[in-house]
Design goal:
The complex is a heterodimer of chains A (358) and B (222). Chain A is 62% helix and 9% strand. Chain A is α/β, with parallel strands linked by helices and 358 residues long. Chain A has two domains: 108 residues, abc type-2 transporter like fold, CATH 3.40.1710; 194 residues, no CATH class. In chain A, strands 2-1-3-4-5 form a five-stranded mixed β-sheet, sandwiched between helices. In chain A, helix 6 packs across helix 13 and helix 10 crosses helix 11. The radius of gyration of chain A is 25 Å and the shape is elongated. Chain B has 222 residues and is of the alpha/beta class. Chain B is built from six helices and ten strands; from the N terminus they run ββββαββαααβαβββα. Chain B is globular. Chain B starts with a strand and ends with a helix. Classes of the chains: A alpha/beta (358), B alpha/beta (222). At the A-B interface, helix 7 of A face loops of B.
Amino acid sequence: MGPLALLRKEAITVRRNLGLFVVLLVVVPAALAAGTSVYQQTIPQDLPVAVAPAEEATTESDVRLVRGAVGFFATPVDYDDRAAAVRAMQREEVYLTFVVPPDLTDADAEATVTVITDRANAPLSDPAALTLGLLESRFDDAFPATVSLEREAVGTERTLSEFMLPSALFALVVLYALVYVPYQVREERRVMDRLRTETRLEYVVAAKLLFYGLLVAVPAGVASAAARYYGYGFDALGVETLAVLGLSFLYTAAAGLAVLFALRLRQAAVFVNLGLAVGVLALSGLVYPVGFYSALRLTIARALPTHHSLVALRGTMLRGGSLSFYADAVTWLVAATGAAVLLLGVAIRRYDRGGVGG
Amino acid sequence: MVSVGDAGFAVETASKRYGDVTALSAVSVTVAPGRFHGLVGPNGSGKTTLFHLLSGLARPTDGRVDRPDAAVGVGFQRPRFYPDLTVRENLSVFRSFAADPPPADWTDRLLEALRLDPAAHRKAGDLSGGFRTKLDLALAMIKRPRYLLLDEPLTDVDDFSRRRIVAFLADYSGEKRSVVVSTHNVEAFADAFDRLTVLADGTVAFDGPVDDPVARYRAALE
């Protein structure tokens, strides 16, 4: 067989598996290229920050001055008081808190604006310190009063290594649930028709989700052992952390399996799921705050349940927070789970009605 | 598709179309208890499509298919099993699906009758074609079903094993149990079939009891 014949054979293979090649060579690169468009700047311009009055004497004009002054790097969000703003910061709704004193409009006054950071948010520590240096002179120039900045930190100090551990664990769970579990089900595609004659596919898939979902405790245990070895002072085996990991596994695996059954167990489904995994990990705020690169990235991240998984996971692991404290994020996870399971049910039903497998 | 107690299978004027292609056209067939029923025809006659309707894996475009409430075992033209499990593990898993599994010695009986013993502890995915077919047959029979539907159950099987399998299936069918075999190889089951449905071009060319299946098959196709 000559080289031309071999090349012709490859061309026939591409034609026979056109869907797979379209996904691999067109859809995934297009998605990756489109994904780069959300990284619009290298310094923060749209970071959500809290602005709250320090006391009742603080006027709307004082608050408005601070809002205007931070606008060059941040999107300010108003809170009624410091405590509400700090709670929002620990839920990653905002990443810094500006506590505004009264009399900023009084040229004879001396005022101190307090900037609160969350010690658990390690990636923001250095950028925040740099930004505050710039801000102090900017505030003093812009406000009638003589203004100084005071930095205050809340929560337990976490290093960047510590901060990365929940992110790494979550990335692993996403790849495991969205890529490996559908791949494993596809490997058993030859037995699907027999299973359909013996039981319901819904039971088969539910058993898979239960079994592989319980196995998520293993990487959580490994991460905990690593955290103990390095003396991080937290682990991933708390009931609340395991609940977040379990729900995250459930909705991502259900979504991955829905894609697999919708594509009738074709190989292309594995690549679609791989593309989805890369996409959600890139856009969910795995490491940097979601407003860091663009307002668009913030909007996309907050529309993804994976971002809310990360918020809840960092909350329970790094901050020791309760699920009730992260109720909004948990509600997202529960809703995502319901939607993904529903989609999976529809995909299985369509697969079941579509005749015999290949 | 509905269940109708233990009166067997009843296919009533069932048609099956895939786009513009009509695989079956207004086919009516019954499978009664206590039969060794041959579902025969040349390649492309529609017998595998009818087999899928009987096994519940496909739905008719028109018409209806009534299935019995009793246990039904299905054997596939392309063997269906867990490739990462051994032969015995596959049998154990599928035996556990049965609501009322037969005694454990039924598994050993199947392994012996189908000459699967030498491969019992081998990974199913590593088996040769003949052993794969025999494993698929064993899985179809593992819960000792009242109705056994088999699609080309002798593919890749050696001659000696073929005769042994046909004899075993003939012995298995009887007053209480039925075996339905979809095949183009009528000769292999010539001594076993007591009823024949001959399909040609998606329609029934003959359906009824037979004494000489091979002669009846040839006559139906002429």
